[in-house]
Design brief:
Length: 287
């Protein structure tokens, strides 16, 4: 910026020109500061709005779970439903909560190997390969014998992996990604039908998906791998539809309690799924 200096009557420069330049620079800095502050305020407002949505969603998810629990325990223990739905509207959102006993899924820790292999075959895997994959799963969940060579651990070392098999029950279905030789595509397909929360070797075909029912091996009697009971573990899938078009999904696994002040405790809570407007996509079945 070029500003001609001001002259007095004797042809001498006056300091007014320098003052004018300083004032203009100060004004420019103030304009920039105001612009930056406006952007900061706008972004802060957006962040607070998103945070408010998250807080509201958490409350609605909790309400959905509570209502599902109430529907389960509102009848005698022997007559409790093993699946159902509750729906309500709160504020500017419509909420549905579907619940289903966890015996609808195959338990990674308790299911017999034949049932797990049957699931892989039902998902398109060859029977012989399915048996090999199940051997690796069984090796992961089985504690090695004391004093004996840990053959399963040596397989992981020979494969160049930096970790051994757990040698204990699966703590999470996501551990299936770590099991030696299992194809990622097969793991991704199988996870929606698996659990670590039912604590039972049997599944309930009345509430299971067709894929789980198809996993039932023919050579085992129905009584060995099926049950008509629901068990104490229940999965609640919550869907929230906000009036503005936003959708939020969550999945909560709870364990019903027979005694104590609280009727249930939370085993797993996945509430990080934020669905955009469009066709409803059901929440991924995860642990």
């Amino acid at each position: 910026m070029n500003v001609a200096p001001l002259m007095d009557g004797h042809g001498r420069k006056t300091p007014d020109g320098f003052i004018l330049v300083a004032v203009l620079w100060i004004l420019s800095a103030l304009v920039a500061l105001v612009s930056i502050y406006a952007i900061y305020v706008s972004e802060t407002a957006i962040a607070l709005s998103a945070n408010d949505d998250a807080v509201i969603s958490e409350g609605l998810i909790s309400a959905g779970v509570e209502l599902a629990v109430y529907k389960i325990i509102s009848v005698s223990r022997n007559a409790r439903p093993i699946r159902g739905q509750v729906a309500f509207r709160m504020g500017k959102a419509s909420v549905t909560a579907d619940f289903r006993a966890e015996t609808a899924r195959i338990d990674l820790n308790y299911a017999p190997k034949e049932l797990l292999a049957g699931l892989f075959v039902a998902l398109g895997e060859q029977p012989e390969r399915a048996k090999q994959y199940v051997e690796r799963i069984d090796g992961w969940r089985t504690r090695p014998q004391k004093g004996a060579e840990d053959r399963e651990a040596s397989l992981y070392r020979d494969a160049g992996l930096s970790y051994p098999p757990r040698g204990a029950p699966f703590a999470h279905t996501a551990e299936l990604w770590l099991v030696l030789d299992l194809p990622p595509v097969l793991v991704e397909r199988a996870l929606p039908y698996l659990t670590v929360f039912s604590g039972r070797a049997e599944i309930n075909p009345a509430i299971a998906t067709p894929e789980v029912v198809a996993a039932l091996p023919d050579k085992l009697t129905a009584n060995a791998v099926t049950t008509t009971e629901g068990g104490d573990a229940v999965r609640v899938t919550v869907h929230i539809d906000f009036d503005g078009g936003r959708r939020r999904d969550a999945e909560v696994v709870i364990m019903m309690r027979a005694v104590g002040a609280e009727p249930y405790r939370v085993l797993s809570w996945a509430a990080d799924i934020d669905a955009q407007p469009g066709p409803r996509q059901r929440v991924g079945l995860r642990q």
